[in-house]
Design a protein that fits this description.
This protein has 11 helices and 14 strands. The chain has 379 residues and is of the alpha/beta class. It has one domain (34-45, 68-353): pyruvate-formate lyase- activating enzyme. The strands form 4 sheets. The protein has a 7-stranded mixed β-sheet. Strand 11, helix 8 (265-275) and strand 12 form a beta-alpha-beta unit. It is globular.
Length: 379
């Protein structure tokens, strides 16, 4: 086995999309239980490498890909945004990268910013921010801080497997709980139930909402597409457990993949409502930059007969491209098929009783931290 290295320009174009029937562009051996089958270099790297057989037949001896965790002493923890098509202006990411390995994850390109691959590196080379809670307390105590809902899980999942060991999310929730600060959580993990004690207390004060993201109810499809996330049944069980504890719970039908999971939209909404979810949303499949070749490769390996149909429908909703990043279009797409999906969602949600009432979180009870604790009100 040898590794070949080649010089690359600073901003190389993406490789051409593979055609149906062609072999995958990368080698997924050694990556059992992972979503991506490629590990191409990030677009900012000068060099790329690829594994090839040098005639000794040693490719089959590649060890199973293991997860590596790097500690980072972050300098800030609250990320701000001004995007006009999302409902929050601030978020927290306790981790960089996500071991769930969802092949379609739109956050994958962020790994290219730190010299890693959006492919297998994204799900196996993770960064943890152990000082996240300390930074959060400091930032909430700044003079003039105005509380608004902090979103967690909108990039990488705060309850991915390494959270069991590091407990960064629980530390963050502890700070938010003490400060009476509102938070919205999105996850694919049943591990969220571990924190039901904190979440339940915050719910009593109107401080928290939790959304479970469900892409498909098909266990086999979920296993290959999002290999280390909780099974669909466990996500529904998490919705039930949270809602029974009085925690406002919703479902995100996300991403909706045309010709692959879009037929399940109504069933997912019905199942989530039966489990206790009372709010719902959906997001169309997003394939920015490096995510497109990763998803195409996955289709060729797992659903080759659906390749052309899926990608043609994707392009029909993205102006003839794999992706359109324009605000107001990136989440839902455009065109007849996108309009049909939107109408189906609206009709199903209305029929089932979803979104009849949207609950706003309480930002008026906020208590700013001071000297490592919470500043108490005098009166």
């Amino acid at each position: 086995m040898q590794t070949g290295r080649t010089q690359r320009p600073l901003s190389p174009p993406l490789p051409p999309a593979p055609e149906p029937g062609a072999p995958p562009a990368g080698d997924a051996r050694g990556a059992s239980g992972r979503g991506a089958g490629l590990n191409m270099a990030g677009r900012y790297e000068r060099e790329s490498s690829e594994i090839f057989d040098d005639g000794w037949g040693t490719l089959d001896e590649i060890e199973t890909l293991r997860t590596h965790v790097h500690e980072e002493r972050a300098r800030t923890i609250i990320t701000r945004n001004e995007s006009p098509d999302i409902s929050f202006d601030r978020s927290i990411n306790p981790y960089r990268g996500c071991e769930h390995g969802c092949v379609y994850c739109f956050a994958r390109p962020s790994h290219a910013y730190v010299g890693l691959s959006p492919g297998l590196d994204f799900e196996s080379r993770l960064t943890v921010k152990p000082n996240a809670a300390e930074l959060l307390e400091r930032e909430l105590s700044r003079p003039g801080y105005a509380p608004r809902t902090i979103a967690i899980g909108t990039n990488t999942d705060p309850y991915q497997p390494i959270e069991r060991q590091w407990k960064i999310m629980r530390e963050i929730l502890t700070v938010l709980d003490r400060c009476n600060h509102p938070v919205g959580i999105v996850t694919k993990s049943a591990l969220v139930l571990r924190d039901i004690d904190i979440l339940g207390s915050m719910a009593e004060r109107g401080l928290v909402k939790v959304a479970l993201s469900i892409t498909t109810l098909d266990r086999k499809l979920a296993r290959t597409m999002e290999p280390r996330a909780a099974t669909p049944e466990k996500r529904l069980a998490a919705i039930r457990g949270l809602s029974e504890a009085g925690i406002p719970t919703s479902v995100m039908v996300a991403p909706v993949i045309p010709a692959l999971t879009d037929s399940e939209m109504e069933r997912i909404l019905e199942s989530a409502h039966e489990a206790g979810a009372r709010e719902a949303g959906y997001i169309l499949l997003r394939l920015p930059i490096e995510v497109s070749p990763l998803f195409r490769d996955w289709l060729l390996r797992h659903r080759p007969d659906s390749y052309r149909h899926v990608m043609n429908l994707v392009r029909s909703m993205r102006g003839g491209k794999d992706y359109d990043a324009q605000w107001q279009k990136r989440m839902k797409g455009e065109g007849p098929y996108a309009e049909q999906l939107g109408r189906r969602f609206q009709l199903a949600a209305k029929r089932i009783g979803m979104n009849a009432k949207r609950r706003a979180l309480n930002k008026d009870a906020f208590l700013a931290p001071r000297a490592g604790g919470v500043q108490l009100q005098l009166f």
